[in-house]
Amino acid sequence: QVYVVFNEDLKCWCRALVESVWCQADGYQLRCFLVDYAKYCSVASENVRALAGAFAKIPHRAKKCRLHCTKPLTLHIDYCENTAKIGPAKRWDTAAIQHFRKLLE
């Protein structure tokens, strides 16, 4: 379900999908995906509102997607044998993410 949340960085109300909720000392925090900005953010529960009927029907400008059959790789360095090999990784490293963003631009 899509909600409206106030994003502190953008200083405006945005449509968002709630990913998760966690409790903090001062209240609840929600991790949200902004469907019109393709950004993730954390929002306090008091900054979440229900989406009015007509606005819920407007298509999202951003969609979550993945690269088909593309798995992250990383450079594994063995200091004892003085070798380096490219192998599978659990996550994309920062350099790979930056390189991919530059290719998109």
From TrEMBL:
SUPFAM superfamilies: Tudor/PWWP/MBT (SSF63748). Gene3D superfamilies: 2.30.30.140, 2.40.50.90. The keyword Nucleotide-binding applies. It comes from Promerops cafer. It catalyses: ATP + H2O = ADP + phosphate + H(+). One of its GO terms (molecular function) is ATP binding. GO terms for biological process: germ-line stem cell division. This is RNA helicase.
